[in-house]
Every structure is written in structure tokens, then in C-alpha cells.
Amino acid sequence: MQKIRYTKKKVRTNILFSFLFVVYALYKSVYLTIKSDSIKWIGFILLIIAIIWFIKCILKSTNYYLSIDNGIIKERNFFRKKTALEDISYLRKTDDQYIIKTAKSELVVYSNDVEEESLKSLDKVLATLDLPAEKNPFAVSQ
């Protein structure tokens, strides 16, 4: 199984900002509620959203962006997409993203979010696909 990981910089930045958001939401919900006589519901809603975002960022730091196993590319997010390598009909590589198309779906991989080693690994896997050169930019570099 090959794992395509998030960049450490992106993960750390997301954790930092989500932690700051949790602190701000705690201030809005707890401190301002104690200070005033009424409950500040918007602060508690913000706190719930901040905690969910923080948990999501922590999970991103331990998980990975994509996995390639047994000829299937799986995107690791809330709405998981699975794409079989043999079903891929078109590949496109731009400066900041890879577009992987099948007859039924489209998977976009943002290269800014992926570690450099993982991108090289993904390039090797995509270069092995049996597609014409005009539909596979990785096949030309072989």
C-alpha cells in the first residue's frame, strides 16, 4: 500500500489555526457568558465548530491524503472516493493539481497539499498506466 501524505507545513498550520479558533470560541462562550447574565449561544456554536475543525486537523496529521492499494486509488476524506487504476481514461497535470478522470468520476489531487516524496510516488504509479501519450502526461517522461 502506498500512502500519499499531506505536507507537514499544511498540517501544522491547520492545527495552529484550529487551536487558536478553539481558544477564541472558548473565550466567546465561557468568559462572556460568565461576565454577562445571559448565555451567549453563538459562542457555544462557535466552540462546537472549532472543536470539530480541531479534531479534523488532528486526524489529518495522523492519516494521509490518498492511498493506492491493489490497483485502487482511495481519497481519504469525509466523502471517500475510490477510483480503480484500470478505469482511468484521462490524466492532466497542471502546476498545482492532478486531474484524474474516469468515465463516471473525477478525482482532483492538489499538489500543494502533498509531500514531495509522495508526489514522486504518485507520478510513478500514474506513469505505469496504459494510456495514450496525449491522455497521460506521465507516459512521455518514461
What does this protein look like?
By secondary structure, the protein is α+β, with helices and mostly antiparallel strands. The protein is 44% helix and 22% strand. The chain is built from three helices and seven strands. It has a four-stranded antiparallel β-sheet, covered by helices on one side. The protein has a three-stranded antiparallel β-sheet with strand order 5-6-7, with no helix packed on it. It starts with a strand and ends in a 15-residue tail after the last helix. The model has no long low-confidence stretch (mean pLDDT 85).
Helix content: 40-55%
Q: What is the approximate shape? A: elongated
> What is the residue-mean pLDDT, rounded to a whole number?
85
Query: Could you give the order of strands across the largest sheet?
Result: 1-2-3-4
Quick rundown:
The chain is 44% helix and 22% strand.
Question: Keyphrases for this structure?
Answer:
142 residues; alpha+beta; 3-stranded antiparallel beta sheet; 3 helices; elongated
What is the element layout, followed by pairings?
Blueprint (H helix, E strand, L loop, with lengths): L1 E3 L3 H28 L5 H22 L3 E4 L2 E4 L6 E3 L3 E6 L3 E6 L3 E5 L5 H12 L15
Antiparallel strand pairs: 1-2, 2-3, 3-4, 5-6, 6-7
Helix pairs in contact: 1-2
